């Protein structure tokens, strides 16, 4: 039938609805009506249309179904019942007078609860009597009404199951009698003033008896049933039906199977407790079959946290049903806790999922592949406008088979989880400490890590197969209907026709039933040609339908049709006689040949399964519902707590286990256990109808999800961090390392989770991706902050480590940015450096470096000129620093192994300050903050000079007016004594030390600048190499830069210009302006890069600055000779002071074993010589320095000594150490001077600066003056 | 023994059943298509949501960037003397 709607709907598929969302969650949206086909949506009211005289049966059936429904609600009330008594308030002594009011209030509160219990009591009484009456009516030997039908049998079993469950609940809930006794007490208190309380009291007593009697409902049912003594027949039929269904296990989904398992022991007890001889049961069903079933399933799930065991039920019931107690074979079955260890092991192997997970995995993989291929075939068929009937039938049939298989798989898997839970509940963990609560014993400590992982895997299989099947619901519906239609039609039109022709020809009444089956379900119009075959087939279809090819019709049979067909088949095989011995399809004494019987049986069970398939989405929902894993009402009650902590909650345990698990493959399933909460919330609202349970679940989910996100983020961060760290490890180290694989990081597929923008949780959609982004942004900032904090607690040498760690962080940011859009790293770094503002040039790092230099580095570090390193002086006063903050390994390099690897690299640089540190500083500060630091250091120099000035004046004052050359005749000893006489500074030793320190600091800064200069030069050169070819530059021979093209543009400009010209001249050029813009930009780049060339030298700059700063003191420290020629006796010049200081400390270092060199290092020479040099006193110093003079004298003396006494050194005895130190100092001073001459050529200018008169101009003004440095950013701005 | 079966007016029932099949074909067509429509809507919502989420993410990034720039500009223009030269 052409429906225009169909085209419209088909047009919808032209919309592209692809999103990037991976399917890592279970099905979330259920589109289904409340009642599916499994129980007829119109309560079998259409059955009467088939004129099968089933109206009585239908009525009874509906009644039972309603009762079952009510009973389930009662059961959920009982299951979720929580004790009120605990919540009742106690009156303090001061309020004793209002005790009566309290009683009244309490009574009213409890009355509400008790009225529910009363209702249950009333309901069970009526339900029992109705069930009993129903059984009696339909099991009379002289049959007056048709029935019971198979659906009717099922309804009886279901109601019985509900009654048994209620009974079980009532027995298990200890809080109910508790509350009741309280209620009764308040009643006696309250009812004192009431009139006419007798009836109420009676009712109360009734309820008390009901509540306190174990198995009251069952006993009541028993009484009702055997009021008239003829229900054994139907009970036997039920048992046969149950046993055969269980043994066949073909058409049963797990909920039905569990119902049958729960009911069977009770049925057996009921039958054997009757007056009659129970042997008749065993004639129909051998006792071994029963025992086998009981033994096979030693625990049966009943409620989420409560299981049943057939053996235990039988045993307990035997005390209430005396007749049954003779059934010793059934009573000797062991209950789960009585199992001998060997058997328990067997069962354990059977029940634990972990032992089957391999097979399940294979099943899952195989099934998903075949399902997907069947799905593809179906889509292909749809797109090809299939006219090939055979192919279409095959494809659809294949799809149908896949769906059936899928349902069976899901049913088996979910049943496994139920059963494993039941098993675990029946066997609490043995080696638990006594402090554990009962629930912890059965859940928290009862699953090993392996078992949890297995459970997660199985749950994710169930959910993923479920959502796969759920998604294609509307796609496969037609195919399913068509296939079922074809199966039914094939059976009634072909199989039944041939049966009618052959075996049933002679049997009038049986063949009438068969033709009835044809009448009520055959769709003759569906034959190939409707119009032709219509007349013939509707009248005598039997003859015509030899090889019917059906016109496919996408309509399934109704529940009523299935119901009637099943009934009729049952009629055929049983002959309508309940007492017929043998089983349902057991052939004994039947008139029907085995072959036909087999066909009937197969079709009979297929019919049962059709309904599940027609109820597609409901079935999928039932089979994938794992909400029971959360519920724990019984244990809550027995543990007397309001709720367990989430560590005990199985869903959270599974989430946690995935996060903690080393198996990174599981991480994709991490959202699956959260689906369990969705299921439980659904159950709480729809099935149990309890708001408070939902609230509890919601609270737990909120809590769990927060923890989940934070743990997940930690995992993600650690993963990316260690990935980055392992990539940044030195490859040569890895190559040489023996166990390099411990530094490699196992890949985790996180990108699936990072794409999740819609996590379905309790009906909410949560954008996990944005949550993760948010946290990642935060954690990156925290990490930067931590690194800075850490650096602030260490000395300057740690700068290399900081840079390394920041590099790792930056690299991990880069890796993460591929999957997630986090803030840019430079932005975060700027934010943490506190220099976001455009006008701030200092940064947290720069100020830290500066303050560190000021307070620790300059005073306490000494220079070693040979190694070009500063090291901490052993004499230095330790600086107080806050202790280093500690953090998780993920804030360093990710894992412990990587941390130690990187630390061992960092340790190499932690003891000194040298070139690598300077490189780090330059890279970290960049061109933005480096000038600020330079400025601060230069200021430091000029400050130091200002500070030194009065001290030096002090030293100058105590020098004699004139100091001549040292006389040679005194020898070394005489000279030294003479020098000491000149330098009468004994009273000023402190001043001396301070001046030395000041000079040392100036030297250190200058040397530091020298290092910086080298580093900047290197970087500049690198930049130059990269840009030179583009700018058309060539390095010349003497450091000059030559341009290759004498005129015109640089290569980069001309390249872009010519490209732009060529493109614009091409007629098809889409946007010529953009090329013009590009060539303009090339010109801009050219200008910018050219301007950056030749940035000059920091050291020269620093020297110029120092010289400018010295200008002020020039007159004080270097007296211009009046004559214009060198005055050799002048004593006030700076070089004299330095000379004195130098010899002083050389002497000290020669005398004391732990010399003062360790306190000052080589930078004193750098400072002193630089000042001397800049003051233009280098030549004076070299001529008149005390130590130089002493060295000269020593040389002469040595030469004369060698001449006179060949091999004795008596004259110089005692002075070797001092002389050696002096020689060293001279070498060092020479080195410094030569360096200064190279970098700050002063001499030529001095040489040129001789006046016309011939007098030398003492001091040259350098073109660089302090004012020139004002362009530098001000310190502290 | 009372046998079941025995449809009293088999021909009429047969005709009714036939008509029932045809009617139900129509009904199932309609209901299936309604369900498809519903499915489409559900999926449409989902897709839209994730597209909106990605748009939102981009806007978020832009917003943060803009905020930063605003702060920088405000900071700089609060002190115009720095740019005098």
Textual characterization of the structure:
- The complex is a heterodimer of chains A (about 1300) and B (about 80).
- Chain A has about 1300 residues and is mostly helical.
- Among the domains of chain A are: about 55-225, Methane Monooxygenase Hydroxylase, Chain G, domain 1; about 230-340, no CATH class; about 710-915, no CATH class; about 960-1010 and about 1100-1270, no CATH class; about 1015-1090, no CATH class.
- Chain A has 49 helices and 9 strands.
- In chain A, a hairpin with a 2-residue loop joins β1 and β2 (about 305-310).
- In chain A, α27 (about 670-685) runs antiparallel to α28 (about 690-725) and α38 crosses α45 (about 1165-1175).
- Chain A is elongated.
- Chain A starts with a helix and ends in a 29-residue tail after the last helix.
- Chain B is mostly helical and about 80 residues long.
- Chain B has one domain (about 10-75).
- Chain B contains 1 helix and no strands.
- The longest helix of chain B is centred in the middle third of the chain and has 68 residues, at about 10-75.
- Chain B is rod-shaped, with a radius of gyration of 35 Å.
- Chain B starts with 9 loop residues before the first helix and ends in an 8-residue tail after the last helix.
- Chain B: Keywords: Coiled coil, Cytoplasm, Cytoskeleton.
- Chain B: InterPro entries: BRICK1.
- Chain B: Belongs to the BRK1 family.
Query: What fraction strand of chain B?
Result: under 5%
How many domains, in number, for the residues of chain B? 1
In whole angstroms, the N-to-C terminal distance of chain A is 85 Å
Integer-rounded radius of gyration of chain A: 50 Å
Largest sheet geometry of chain B: none
- Total strand segments of chain B: 0
The proportion of residues in beta strands of chain A is under 5%
Order of helices and strands of chain B: H
Average pLDDT metric of chain B: 82
Coiled coil (chain B): 45-79
GO molecular function, one term (chain B): protein-containing complex binding
Subcellular location (chain B): Cytoplasm, Cytoskeleton
Main location (chain B): cytoplasm
